[in-house]
Q: What sequence folds into this?
């Protein structure tokens, strides 16, 4: 097999070793983009022409754009300049005005087994009604709305209603604590919060409304809270401020007709907070035009989405994976999506496989941590079920170890389903390095950059690494789905992503990677102080600042330690204040404190009380040394160590 490289030369994509999974001839013949490899070369030869064609094909525009790409303000790129559109219109209205009107848009199953279906028409009506409720609360174009809910259709309805009226959503994952929620509400300056009484998880309820109340107390700006009733648990409703979703939706103001707000392609679409190298989470901003084009194109080509597929992206809508591939792209493409509320192993480790069988799911997209977690229960749980409806599988969030890849391929895919290992980030909007069903696979490799994406692995000086040499993963040209800025902090955007290779004008991903002799990309992991725990992205600084906010802690450092199931776990080191002595009670109290300040996902699995931390002469904590020490590895170069 050969293909065009970015400089037009043919590069061979052949087996480096015996473990290469070639696509079947039928898969290639039936693929949405059978000529994908050739398209990659064409797209790079003229990215503007390529994205122009995709923008016309994937979405409707109220007014055409005048220019595909404006790079005059780089790295603040603009795409589809002057075009007017609306993402909720493309996701719903245009299907309602077509033969898809009564096609199923969403099939939902709750953790307790309750079921709900929405046709495009029904989802459109609910979204319109809720959009009118929001308008009635004074929400308009450009206003920010924070959403803090469990994984139910109402979360999707809320997001689509916000974007329909031109407002900007900031969805905060339901696993975050009151402090994390409060700081995100404040940073986004949102007056309106949409939440629910609670969410189901492993047969218990998470008290989302209580957490919301605390967060609202800590922030000064929220004057309206809309509460969806999910678990029916007792909650406190503050008169004047809090309103029940179902009561609002029954009022005359909740009319089922709502015209979409025409949005400029570069108007803000949503903010999504993610962890970076400092304690303050950053609000990554995506905009209305390019994001739609990019997410729809990537989903269609990579997961080969056809009209009769039943697509299940098992992520949480509170993360970028859910934004792009549960909510927006599947609806833009007019497909039927499946959503499940709860945990993969509840009440038994066969829950996922039972869902696949019960609904006849054709494509499943999940994370290595879930795969490893289910693999450990053995093959029998999956073998109880008929999984023959599946034709494609996917993975995202962290490198998938070859052993988990093979299990997923053999037991879940019955050696019939190619695995799309998609590498991307909150900041990239959609898949960046990924196979499609026509690309030969290697377990553990995300394979090749997507059409129109020029990625490379380089050294510090910007020179391209040799095959099999580790280096910085960079993207050399802009793409429509790229983040446009950090909300309220453009300098941070430049500093974080565009300063490492400022001279060359490349986007630095924060990841290290290598390419093999076939040009396949192997992602190694984060180069910065970001830790991936069960696929969740956490900054060491966030956890450290939570620890030092405890009255007994003087200083703290956190490192990620590799873990078989969770990818990484957190090991924290704390220096206590004078006069405080360490005890196992204090260790427990500190862990609880992190749970309150950040959320359960950030709780360190180990916490050591220490007398000192290794630092450079300039005072930077050398986390590398702590990590080596915990793992019993050689300490390496210590010439910069102060003491
Ligand atoms: O380190 C990479 C890892 O996840 C990071 C991005 O995290 P987040 O913004 O939370 O988005 C996750 C979902 C898109 C990346 O910098 N990562 C993501 N996908 C993969 C991956 N690492 C290896 N292989 C992947 N497929």
A:
């Amino acid at each position: 097999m050969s293909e065009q490289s970015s400089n037009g030369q043919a590069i061979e994509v052949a087996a480096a070793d015996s473990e290469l999974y070639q696509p079947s001839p039928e898969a290639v013949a039936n693929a949405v983009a059978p000529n994908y490899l050739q398209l990659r070369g064409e797209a790079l030869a003229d990215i503007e022409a390529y994205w122009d064609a995709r923008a016309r094909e994937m979405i409707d525009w109220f007014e055409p754009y005048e220019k595909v790409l404006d790079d005059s303000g780089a790295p603040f790129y603009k795409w589809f300049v002057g075009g007017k559109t609306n993402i909720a219109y493309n996701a719903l209205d245009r299907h309602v005005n077509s033969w898809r009107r009564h096609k199923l848009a969403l099939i939902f199953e709750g953790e307790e087994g309750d079921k709900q279906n929405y046709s495009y028409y029904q989802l459109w009506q609910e979204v319109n009604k809720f959009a009118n409720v929001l308008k009635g609360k004074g929400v308009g174009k450009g206003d920010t709305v924070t959403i803090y809910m469990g994984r139910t259709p109402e979360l999707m309805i809320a997001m689509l209603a916000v974007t329909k009226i031109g407002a900007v959503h900031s969805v905060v994952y339901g696993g975050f604590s009151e402090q994390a929620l409060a700081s995100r509400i404040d940073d986004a300056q949102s007056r309106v919060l949409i939440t629910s009484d609670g969410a189901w998880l492993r047969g218990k309820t998470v008290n989302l409304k209580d957490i919301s109340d605390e967060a609202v107390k800590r922030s000064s700006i929220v004057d309206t809270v809309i509460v969806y009733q999910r678990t029916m648990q007792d909650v406190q409703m503050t008169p004047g401020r809090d309103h029940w979703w179902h009561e609002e939706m029954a009022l005359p103001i909740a009319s089922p007709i709502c015209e979409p707000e025409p949005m400029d392609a570069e108007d803000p679409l949503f903010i999504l907070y993610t962890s970076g190298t400092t304690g303050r989470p950053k609000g990554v901003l995506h905009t209305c035009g390019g994001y739609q084009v990019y997410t729809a194109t990537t989903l269609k080509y990579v997961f080969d989405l056809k009209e009769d597929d039943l697509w299940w992206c098992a992520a949480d809508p509170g993360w970028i994976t859910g934004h792009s591939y549960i909510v927006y792209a599947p609806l833009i493409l007019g497909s039927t999506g499946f959503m499940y509320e709860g945990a993969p192993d509840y009440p038994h480790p066969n829950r996922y496989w039972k869902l696949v069988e019960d609904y006849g799911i054709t494509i499943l997209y999940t994370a290595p941590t879930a795969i490893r977690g289910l693999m450990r229960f053995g093959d029998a749980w999956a073998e109880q079920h008929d999984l023959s409806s599946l034709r494609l599988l996917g993975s995202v969030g962290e490198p998938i170890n070859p052993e988990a890849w093979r299990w997923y391929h053999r037991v879940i895919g019955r050696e019939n389903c190619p695995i799309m290992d998609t590498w991307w980030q909150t900041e990239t909007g959609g898949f960046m390095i990924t196979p499609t069903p026509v690309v030969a696979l290697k377990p553990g490799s995300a394979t090749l950059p997507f059409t129109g994406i020029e990625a490379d692995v380089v050294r510090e000086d910007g020179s391209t690494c040799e095959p099999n040499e580790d280096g910085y993963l960079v993207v050399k040209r802009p793409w429509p789905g790229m983040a446009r800025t950090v909300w309220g902090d453009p300098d941070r955007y430049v500093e974080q992503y565009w300063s490492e290779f400022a001279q060359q004008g490349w986007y630095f991903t924060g990841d290290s990677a290598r390419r093999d002799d076939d040009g396949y990309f192997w992602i190694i992991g984060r180069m910065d102080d970001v830790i991936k725990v069960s696929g969740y992205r956490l900054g060491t600084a966030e956890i450290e600042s939570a620890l030092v906010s405890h009255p007994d802690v003087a200083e703290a450092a956190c490192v990620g330690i590799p873990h078989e199931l969770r990818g990484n776990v957190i090991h924290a080191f704390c220096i206590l204040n004078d006069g405080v002595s360490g005890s196992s009670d204090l260790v427990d109290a500190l862990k609880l404190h992190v749970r309150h300040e950040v959320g359960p996902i950030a709780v360190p699995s180990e916490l050591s009380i220490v007398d000192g931390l290794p630092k450079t002469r300039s005072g930077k904590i050398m986390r590398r040394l702590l990590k080596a020490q915990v793992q019993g590895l050689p300490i390496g170069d210590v010439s910069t160590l102060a003491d």
In short: Residues 515 and 521 are 4 Å apart (CA to CA). Confidence is low (pLDDT under 50) at residues 1-16.
